[in-house]
Amino acid sequence: MSALPVTPALQSRLPNVGTTIFTVMSALAAEKGAVNLGQGFPDFGCDPRLTGAVTDAMNAGHNQYPPMAGIPALRQAISSKIESLYGRRYDEGSEITITAGATQAIITVVLAVVHPGDEVIVLEPCYDSYVPNIELAGGVVVRVPLTPGTFRPDFGKIAAAMSPRTRAIIINTPHNPSATVWTREEMLQLQELLAPTNVLLISDEVYEHMVFDAPQRRHHSAAEFAGLAARSFIVSSFGKTYHVTGWKVGFVAAPAPLSAEFRKVHQFNVFTVNTPVQHALASYMADPAPYLNLPAFYQRKRDLFREGLKNTRFKLLPSEGSYFQCVDISAVSDLSEAEFCKWLTTEIGVAAIPLSAFYGNGFDQRVVRFCFAKKDETLQTALQRLARL
Question: Which helix or strand (DSSP H or E) is residue 48 part of?
Answer without folding.
Answer: helix 48-59
